[in-house]
Amino acid sequence: MTAADTADIERDEKQATPTRPFSPFEWMIAGRYLRSRRRETFISVIAGFSFAGIMLGVATLIIVMAVMNGFRTELLGKILGINGHMLVQPIDLPLTDYDAVASRLEGVPEVVSAIPFTEGQALVSGPAGNFGALVRGIYESDLRRVPLIANTVRSGTLDGFDEGEGVAIGSRMAQQLGITVGDNVTIISPRGSVTPMGVTPRVKAYPVSAIFEIGMSEYDATFLFMPLNEAQAYFNMDTKATGIEIYVLDPDRVGTMKAAIEEAADRPTFVTDWRQRNITFFSALEVERNVMFIILTLIVLVAALNIISGMIMLVKDKGKDIAILRTMGASRGAIMRIFLITGASIGCVGTLAGFVLGLVVCLNIESIRQFVSWLTTTELFSPELYFLSKLPAEIDSGETTTVLLMALLLSLLATVYPAWRAARLDPVEALRYE
Question: What residues make up the domain containing 105?
């Protein structure tokens, strides 16, 4: 083909009426390029791997981020559900007027409840062994205002908690000690009576009146609740309380409420919130979550690179077809859009399939975990290691949208260069040796 022929082709291009962008003609050609033929099997295999990579990458991102969100929500709910959103502790003077202080704190706007308590560490003993425990004294009325305890009593009752000498313990503690409701649990404290021979440990047996199951293994194995007056007597605290826990409407606004809490206490106090007490734990969760997002994004990026390689091979293979289309009047823009549609279709369909797969797995993740555990005869989610008794998953619409948009953007960007190369292909060079 001579230079004159090339000039004729370019003149014909200028005179030809260009097709409407993304017209049915362009979609038809792109669809034909996506369908496999015998001599194009290798290109189709690459496209298939690209589709699978994007689908698995998007699904993995959605599943992992949902599980991380579920972890944070569940742990936050369990930790704050039993420890409160803010903690008021006395300074200089013992907290003997805790009832009056708690009443004033409950008058602060957005405060749901203020619960005084007495706390100490002890050794609990039962027929099956001895274990460390956190003994907390609390009023029955206040214990009933803690839903994480009051709504999770599996056996026994909290009725008459203040009047009796019974205690409430977690299900894992009961299992480890080998006791049930009605049995006695022995509590041993190193801070006992002072005798001429020194300080002797305090040992006392209490009947178990209730067994609760929070769902967080660490708390179910360590917390023991007893009446406030009994705890004060056991720990030799007379009429003093360890502190007052405050529950608020919005845990994220505790920072703005600190001044009002200190003013309502009307005495020297040290006020801390849940963020200060758990900063290391939740910071580690946030860092892990961000790092996992970056690492798993690489899966989608690798799949996008597969799209680039597959599209470049397709452009080379379709060089003759591109040249013929150009001679028939197809513009450079039409050729570019055809290959954009071809590559973007892989990414869009893969992203949609990944979203559906991730959604299905997240909605059935606990059943899947149990099935895999049964299949492999191993415990995939040990409560002792992960604190929670089941695998949580919480899909965040904002994060999921970000994942989908990121996958679509990478897929679209991956097709730009191959499509540009196809549009720049010289039909004379492509047909020179045909």
Answer: 93-267
